[in-house]
């Protein structure tokens, strides 16, 4: 019951809506090399109700690491009341209630957080004006 409620376990092969083999293979990806080779601007967004990402601290650590590798290229933004799919849900508890009651799929169709569009648009415009707009937290 706990896994189903908090980790989207389907009782068989899926956790967080992904097949368990996906979760097993992501540990083999060389993220440090991939980020080192990605000489580009990066916007890391953490939603206030983002359960899969666990904590905004992880996003902040990523931005700091990227700015160490490529100074000034990574930015962090916090998007309140928003889940991993950019749905405006309120708190993490609100999201869990929607999922537990089986209401999330219908709710999600009508509740995309439009603040994401403004956030990304503003960031893109900043990048166009100054290619290195990243912020060290």
TrEMBL record:
InterPro entries for this protein: AB_hydrolase_fold (IPR029058)
Superkingdom per UniProt: Bacteria
Protein name: Dienelactone hydrolase domain-containing protein
Lineage: Bacteria, Pseudomonadati, Bacteroidota, Cytophagia, Cytophagales
């Amino acid at each position: 019951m706990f896994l189903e409620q908090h980790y989207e376990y389907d009782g068989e092969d899926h956790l967080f809506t992904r097949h368990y083999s996906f979760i097993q293979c992501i540990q083999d990806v060389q993220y440090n090399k991939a980020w080192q080779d990605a000489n580009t601007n990066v916007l890391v967004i953490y939603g206030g109700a983002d359960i899969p990402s666990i904590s905004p601290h992880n996003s902040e650590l990523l931005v700091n690491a990227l700015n160490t590798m490529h100074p000034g290229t990574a930015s962090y933004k916090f998007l309140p009341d928003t889940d991993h799919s950019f749905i405006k849900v309120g708190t993490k508890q609100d999201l869990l209630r929607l999922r537990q009651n089986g209401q999330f799929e219908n709710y999600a169709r009508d509740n995309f957080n439009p603040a994401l569009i403004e956030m990304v648009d503003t960031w893109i415009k900043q990048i166009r004006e100054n290619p290195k707009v990243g912020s060290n937290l």
